[in-house]
Design goal:
By secondary structure, this protein is mainly α. It has helices spanning 8-11, 27-36, 39-42, 62-83, 95-104, 113-123, 132-143, 158-164, 187-193, 206-211, 215-238, 244-253, 262-274, 278-291, 307-310, 317-335, 338-364, 375-381, 386-399, 402-413; strands at 145-147, 150-152, 293-297, 311-315. The chain is globular and about 65 Å long. It holds the Pfam family HD.
């Protein structure tokens, strides 16, 4: 049955990248399938979520996190399609579209988590910055496929690209330029996503512009919040960072009440840790968050153009408050600890030193004296000017997995590591 929720406007491809044929699949199914089979997606298995990937086999990586977000996203869509009177079999939110957005939402994020992202932004500041969500778009539109020394995109649909646009402010227009922007050269993506109305004309406030998102982007964002607020707690408990004593100390020390009954919930969590039932206790919250999501109508200038802006989701205040409580618990008991900060510092320093050496060899020099990069990058960089070479070098380093970064660093700087027979 044809789904009238989406029109040809939503399914139109950007026209940059590998061509597509229908072959019995919808355009959104093709977007999803291309993500799943891509090297960029597979690399997420060795990129840090909270703890360094590979440290223990049960901690989440960017890959397992993305898979969990996609499952939660699909469940939210399923709940909305069944529970809303405005939706039906012939007029429904597309699960494949939301799944592809959720699977790809971290595809451009570098090694070593947010610390790696911050370091690369500092290093690229004079050349347009670095932002993980902006890099998502760059991979999808420009870097998805490689043919020798040429790269091309996956030719994504308008609805998929719009769902990836968590932020719509250009780097040049960003006040702090620390995060929550896209690259200046990605304005053509904004123009494709909204060809008749320029996003920047809708809001003068930067936060308001970044908060104006398509329905599917809002679902992905909420699914992401659910996944990491719950699963960071789960990993933190397993790693020994979150203990009953630390929970109770934090309860006594914190100066803000989130749910109105923080102590009651946290005591339940402490009991679940004592009984070793915390995984089931936390897992049940996922269903609570999903079923606390409603399908609502909204009014804006794009509502007449596409149902993706005619409708939105609304999350119960209790759910938002509980999700925030969980995030703050993780931030204070896991992320703001010496152990995690030391690892972040080390990862950032490794990336900085690696980038500096590569930049000196491939950007500052007229011609590289050493072949430090794989042949296709080594050849491709020499075809461009210094500005483009720096961006391409950032593409290369941001795509490296944690393990690959560490091995490359050791090969360059550790006298006791490596031989000419080592594989990269």
């Amino acid at each position: 049955m044809k789904n009238s929720f989406y029109s040809d406007f939503d399914t139109e491809w950007i026209g940059r990248g590998q061509s597509k044929n229908v072959k019995g699949r919808t355009p959104f199914e093709q977007d999803r399938d291309r993500i799943i089979y891509s090297p960029a997606f597979r690399r997420l298995q060795n990129k840090t979520q909270v703890f360094l990937s590979g440290e223990f086999d049960f901690y989440r990586t960017r890959l397992t996190h993305s898979m969990e977000v996609s499952q939660i996203g699909r469940s939210i869509v399923n709940h909305l399609n069944r529970s809303s009177n405005a939706l039906s079999d012939g007029f429904r939110i597309d699960q494949d579209l939301v799944e592809s957005i959720c699977l790809a939402h971290d595809i451009g994020h570098p090694s070593f988590g947010h610390a790696g992202e911050q370091i690369l932004n500092e290093l690229m500041f004079e050349a347009g910055g670095f932002e993980g969500n902006a890099q998502n778009l760059r991979i999808l539109v420009d870097l998805f496929y490689r043919d020798k020394t040429q790269w091309s995109g996956m030719n994504p649909t308008r609805a998929f690209l719009d769902g990836m646009l968590k932020y719509k402010v250009l780097f040049a227009n960003s006040e702090k330029k620390k995060n929550h922007f896209i690259y200046n050269f990605q304005k053509d993506i904004l123009d494709f996503v909204s060809p008749d109305v320029e996003f920047s004309t809708l809001f003068e406030n930067e936060n308001a512009l970044n908060s104006f998102k398509s329905l599917e982007c809002r679902i992905m964002d909420w699914a992401d919040d659910i996944a990491y607020s719950i699963h960071d707690i789960d990993d933190g408990i397993r790693a020994g960072f979150i203990t009953i004593k630390k929970i109770r100390n934090w309860m006594d020390d914190k100066d803000k009440e989130y749910t109105g009954n923080d102590r009651g919930f946290l005591e339940e969590l402490a009991t679940a840790i004592t009984d070793d039932t915390f995984s089931a206790f936390l897992a049940r919250l996922i269903g609570t968050f999903i079923h606390g999501t409603k399908f609502v109508e909204r009014d804006n200038v794009l509502a007449e153009k596409t149902h993706r802006y005619r409708f939105d989701i609304q999350v119960e205040e209790e759910g938002l408050a509980l999700c925030t409580l969980l995030k703050m618990l993780s931030i204070n008991l896991v992320f703001h600890t010496p152990q995690v900060h030391q690892l972040e510092y080390k990862g950032g320093r490794i990336l900085r030193e690696l980038f500096t050496v590569m930049e000196e060899e491939y950007v500052i020099k007229d011609a590289p004296g050493y072949r430090l990069l794989p042949a296709h990058y080594h050849i491709a960089l020499q075809k461009h000017d210094a500005y483009e070479r720096r961006r391409m070098l950032c593409d290369y380093i941001s795509g490296m997995t944690d393990g690959f970064v560490v091995r490359t660093y050791k090969r360059l700087f550790d006298p006791d590591f490596g031989s000419i027979n080592d594989l990269i």
